[in-house]
Amino acid sequence: MMTIMLLIYFLCLGLIMGSFFNVVALRIPRGLSIVHPPSSCPDCGTRLRARDLFPVFSYLLTKGKCRACDARVSGLYPIGEASTGLLFAWVYWRFNDSIPELIVGILLISLCVIVTITDLRYMLIPNKILLFFAPLLLVSVLYQTQQPIWSHLLGALLGGGVLMLVVWLSRGGMGMGDVKLLTLFGFVVGLPQVILVLLIASFAGALIGAVLLLTKMIKRKQPVPFGPYLALGVLISYGYGNDIIQQYLSIFY
Q1: pTM value?
Q2: Where, by residue number, does the polypeptide cross the bilayer (predicted)?
């Protein structure tokens, strides 16, 4: 019973934090304060009231429109909120027996949600966001890790190094934000899990990119954000990386 109650608590906490992460992700790249001014309609500027600030539910009740001007509200808002809620619930379910790992998971999810939104909206992964989360993740990982420190250092070096090579070979076809992001992710999960992050991100990016091309939602050679796929890869690797690698190795040994 207690587990179910805590699961619901983390779900609700995630919904609330997801709403805040939307504000962070949509304001920081534009150099705006995350505190002032209060949230408002991007079209008419009408300040949102308390009834408009309930995560997900306010969007559904207003049918995705501003109460004042009837303008459409971006679907990124409820998607970000719902995703954060579900991910917070998942990370509690996955790591409820280890508080240090749970803390790392919450920090990792928070970073992933924010950079996914900024990359989708602005094709940008702001340094301010990475610099805020980097020390928190570094300290948290070093406190709870059961892997040798060199594993985390090599994970960071390999992750950042591979994408740096891609940037060089593609002559700017990939942004430095992705390099910095995978460097941090590589430190969090270490080696060999960072390889899994790269494989998942590359496969997911190629698959979804192909679907978008076939449906003509994007054009050939059109830049697409890679941050969301790295976020997907690191969350899967953090939650299930060891199990996936062990299952793979069991095929040969």
Answers
A1: 0.94
A2: 6-26, 75-93, 99-118, 125-143, 149-169, 181-214, 226-245
